[in-house]
Design a protein that fits this description.
mainly beta, 6-stranded antiparallel sheet
Length: 71
């Protein structure tokens, strides 16, 4: 399992590249995150599979954890 921390004071976006055979779990700590057509806010989490280039858009004052794990 690889764990990443995402933080943004002013908003923005990042792209996470997951390798084949891996899934992603995003857990929002503060703020808002939008990915794969889903809007998430503090306390929300989402699991995704079969993604390679995952675009994550962040609102202001956002913090989240991203878990990249085998499935």
């Amino acid at each position: 399992v690889d764990i990443y921390v995402g933080k943004s004071k002013a908003g923005g976006q990042v792209i996470h590249r997951a390798e084949a055979g891996r899934g992603v779990w995003i857990q929002v700590i503060n703020g808002t995150v939008s990915t794969s057509g889903e809007a998430l806010s503090a306390g929300d989490g989402a699991g995704l599979t079969d993604v390679t280039d995952l675009k994550i858009e962040m609102g202001v004052q956002t913090e989240f954890l991203l878990f990249d794990l085998p499935y």
